[in-house]
Design goal:
globular, about 140 residues, mainly alpha, two-stranded antiparallel sheet
């Protein structure tokens, strides 16, 4: 698939941040630790499916095929996608997500997510309690184990 060059600037930034926060080497490591490495070459390898699931959170108003298109365009711009590719069907994406399962995403979350503020960050604490804010975003996701 060739990039059409369309897309909002914010989409480009979001996908660039995605690959910096979750570097491919880390994603591959987590996929291997969870035993999700492919035995054969697929249109949707585990690493791409992990990025796809993360991209679904960034583009929550879009369908599977549009998220896949945006993801590949973003990876092309980052120089992390070099081959021709066709957008898989929604059914193929669903099967790939089932193959991946929740474990690699859970492990990735555990490896990457940390509080931004530490004990010295002014304004992040009230006495001994960390201040937090919760937004009202809701993600509809399929049930998992």
């Amino acid at each position: 698939m060739k990039s059409s060059g369309v897309g909002r600037f914010s989409d480009r930034i979001a996908l660039g941040v995605l690959t910096r926060v979750f570097p491919p080497e880390l994603v591959d490591e987590v996929v291997a630790e969870c035993g999700r490495v492919e035995q054969r070459t697929r249109l949707l390898p585990a690493r791409v499916v992990v990025y796809f699931v993360l991209a679904m959170c960034l583009f929550f108003g879009q369908g599977y095929e549009e998220v896949a298109r945006l993801l590949v365009q973003g990876l092309e711009r980052e120089g992390r996608w070099a081959t021709a590719w066709r957008v898989p069907t929604t059914a193929a994406i669903g099967r790939a997500r089932l193959r991946l399962g929740p474990e690699p995403l859970r492990a990735l979350f555990g490896r990457v997510c940390r509080p931004v503020a530490d004990a010295r960050t002014q304004g992040a604490w009230y006495r001994r309690w960390r201040l937090v804010a919760v937004d009202g975003t809701v993600f509809d996701v399929p049930d998992t184990a």
